[in-house]
UniProtKB/TrEMBL annotation:
It comes from Triticum urartu. Residues 1-12 have a biased composition (Polar residues). Residues 1-36 are annotated as: Disordered. Pfam families: IRX15_IRX15L_GXM (PF21729). Its main location: Golgi. The keyword Transmembrane helix applies. It comes from the Eukaryota. It is a single-pass membrane protein. This is Uncharacterized protein.
Amino acid sequence: SGQGATTASVTDSTEDARGVLVGRGPSSSADVHVSRYPNPAGKAWAVLRRARSSPVCQHPTGTVRKLGCRLVLTSLPWEVLDARWDVVVVDAPSGAGPGEPGRMGAIYTTAARVT
C-alpha cells in the first residue's frame, strides 16, 4: 500500500477472512469483509441475460448501492460500495461448479465502481 492507501479484501469465506487477518502485518491498512454472492455460477447466462435487458443495470454511474440492479453485491459495507478504487482484482468466488457462487456480481460491482 502507498501512503494513504487502503486495501480491502472481500471474500465469501470466514476462513479465508481469518487467514487474511492473521497474515497481515501490524502496520497493514487492509480491511477484510465477508460478503454473500447470491448468484450461483450455473445461472450465469440467465442472470447476465436478465441484467442486459434491465435499464437499471445498463451504464452504471453514481452510487452503486442505489442502482437497483440485482447484480450489485449489496452485502458489502458502505465504505466498500461507496469508495472509488484505483485497482480492483476479482479472484473470488471460485465459481468452480454450477452450485458454487459465481463472479458475475463481483465483476459487475467492480465495473460500476471504476467507471
